[in-house]
Amino acid sequence: MDNVQLHMASAPAPHTKVEHFIPEEGVCTKEINFVVDNGNIDYVSFVGGCEGNLKAIASMIEGMHVDFVLDRFSGITCGSKSTSCVDQLCHALREYMEKEQSE
Length: 103
What we know:
- By secondary structure, this protein is of the alpha+beta class.
- It has helices at 51-61, 66-73, 85-102, and strands at residues 5-7, 19-21, 31-37, 40-47.
- The longest helix is centred in the last third of the chain and has 18 residues, at 85-102.
- Mean pLDDT is 88; it is low at 1-9.
């Protein structure tokens, strides 16, 4: 499934700024794209990874507040790895929120 972009939620509006995040090595997802609007997740897409699981996660978190997602999904591991695709999404969301607060 690598190199296949999985659009998890409806595509973002044409002029919406999509954030791009490259996860650390060791996870199946090679890129995470997302949109946050007023603290809520409006769009998530993963490039690579476990298609069914990532579709389910994206569907579940669409419309949720970033803080809730961080609380629920931070630190989740995959097998013997120290992280997971969804944990890497949390890293991306944290970086985004820190950047937004400093502007």
